């Protein structure tokens, strides 16, 4: 039974005050909060079995290795990858995308094309621009409409037998738009292009099945899904991971090293040079357990209720404009908005004084802001531990801020 009051007890941070007011945390799209169950796993690791993994014969090293590899297996099961060595631990979404962009350096040729959507976070744009500079390949952009939804039919005009890779986010961090990734994957595969899905924003709301999607690469960060920062994952189909060159050289990723020639380890170690974030990986697994104990259907239903509740109230405020899909079934619990010509930063600062955390700015998505000809927005993003009472408080404080700034 989904009970938000009980769930909130799992999150110690939700008990604190900010500027003398109870914290109302609505910046979940930037990073989610961490439940006690995950904090306990982190404390247990450093209290009881902190050790370097994979190489040690001693017990602590064995225990840490087992826990780390069990976490990889949990992640595999959660995303329904076929094999656990198709899950590569990284430091997060950005790192995972850079790993794939680097891997494609030796696959792309100068006549090749790659396609990005107009709705991307900078971390799903810049590594590909750098790849184009290295290889001479061309970057094309799938456009969007005024509602912040991709013009999916345009993809047919962009795709050709020159297209080698298409990369889009599942959900836009700036607008909350849910993109039709299955259609994109199917269309791209028809011309033989691989597809990378940036799941940074979808992983806390939707449980994807990478085999059912038939996606080539799927990336996400643990800190968006109630885990710690500094750890994330790349799922890649085995055949692609085998084709790609390693991203970083060093310990752990080798088979044999001599000054004449080095051979690389097999998957997943080929892409995991150096001592990894052992504790982070284990806590990532614990975060996935936690999310599954709440249940992704429960999470989606409840967050959808919050989205409707907040949208209705916000739209009653004179001069408030919400960016992104009008049809709420096309988005998740992210509301990006502006009020008349008041600068988002001013509203964000006043809300903070009242204990309310929202994000203001371009949300690492400047092309989207340029499209709407605005410097930025105020973004309120909800998770399953937020409440309708918090939304009431947020709307009342927003109205107060608008009055103060008018
Ligand atoms: N893509 C999207 C859609 C995101 O929302 C984010 C995080 N804001 C990222 C990529 C980058 O994630 P990280 O900073 O954890 O690498």
Automatic annotation (TrEMBL):
PROSITE patterns membership: AA_TRANSFER_CLASS_5
Annotated InterPro entries: Aminotrans_V_dom (IPR000192), Aminotrans_V_PyrdxlP_BS (IPR020578), Cys_dSase_SufS (IPR010970), Cysteine_dSase (IPR016454), PyrdxlP-dep_Trfase (IPR015424), PyrdxlP-dep_Trfase_major (IPR015421), PyrdxlP-dep_Trfase_small (IPR015422)
GO function term, MF aspect, one: transaminase activity
EC code(s) of this entry: 2.8.1.7
Co-factor(s): pyridoxal 5'-phosphate
Chemical reaction(s) catalysed: (sulfur carrier)-H + L-cysteine = (sulfur carrier)-SH + L-alanine
Coiled coil: none
Keyword set, alphabetical order: Aminotransferase, Pyridoxal phosphate, Transferase
Ranges where the Aminotransferase class V domain occurs: 24-394
Lineage: superkingdom: Bacteria
Enzyme class: transferase
CDD domains in alphabetical order: SufS_like (cd06453)
NCBIfam families (alphabetical): sufS (TIGR01979)
Name recorded for this polypeptide: Cysteine desulfurase
UniProt source species: Winogradskyella maritima
């Amino acid at each position: 039974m989904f009970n938000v009051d009980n769930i909130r007890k799992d999150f110690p941070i939700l008990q604190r005050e900010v500027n003398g007011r109870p914290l109302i945390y609505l910046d979940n799209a930037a990073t989610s909060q961490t439940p006690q169950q995950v904090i306990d796993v982190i404390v247990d690791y450093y209290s009881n079995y902190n050790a370097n993994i994979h190489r040690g014969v001693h017990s602590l090293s064995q225990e840490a290795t087992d826990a780390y590899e069990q976490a990889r297996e949990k992640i595999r099961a959660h995303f329904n990858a076929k094999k656990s060595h198709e899950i590569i631990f990284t430091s997060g979404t950005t790192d995972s995308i850079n790993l794939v962009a680097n891997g494609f350096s030796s696959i792309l040729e100068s006549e090749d094309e790659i396609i990005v959507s107009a709705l991307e976070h900078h971390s799903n744009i810049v590594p590909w621009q750098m790849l184009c500079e290295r290889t001479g390949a061309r970057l094309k952009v799938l456009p969007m409409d005024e509602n912040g939804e991709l013009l999916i039919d345009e993809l047919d005009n962009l795709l050709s037998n020159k297209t080698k890779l298409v990369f889009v986010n599942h959900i836009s961090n700036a607008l909350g738009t849910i993109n039709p990734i299955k259609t994109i994957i199917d269309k791209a595969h028809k011309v033989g292009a691989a597809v990378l899905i940036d799941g940074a924003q979808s992983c806390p709301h939707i449980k994807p099945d990478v085999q059912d999607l038939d996606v080539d690469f799927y990336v996400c960060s643990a800190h968006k899904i109630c885990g710690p920062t500094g750890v994330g994952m790349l799922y890649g189909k085995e055949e692609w991971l085998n084709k790609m060159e390693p991203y970083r050289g060093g310990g752990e990723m080798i088979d044999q090293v001599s000054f004449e020639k080095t051979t690389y380890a097999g998957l997943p170690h080929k892409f995991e040079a150096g001592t990894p974030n052992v504790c982070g990986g284990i806590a990532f697994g614990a975060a996935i357990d936690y999310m599954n104990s709440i249940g992704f259907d429960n999470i989606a239903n409840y967050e959808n209720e919050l989205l409707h509740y907040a949208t209705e109230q916000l739209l009653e405020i004179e001069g408030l404009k919400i960016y992104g899909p009008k049809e709420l079934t096309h988005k998740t619990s992210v509301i990006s908005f502006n009020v008349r010509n008041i600068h988002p930063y001013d509203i964000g600062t006043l809300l903070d004084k009242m204990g309310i955390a929202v994000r203001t700015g371009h949300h690492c998505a400047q092309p989207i802001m340029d499209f709407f000809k605005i410097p930025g927005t105020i973004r309120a993003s909800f998770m399953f531990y937020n409440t309708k009472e918090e939304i009431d408080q947020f709307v009342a404080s927003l109205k107060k801020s608008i009055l103060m700034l008018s």
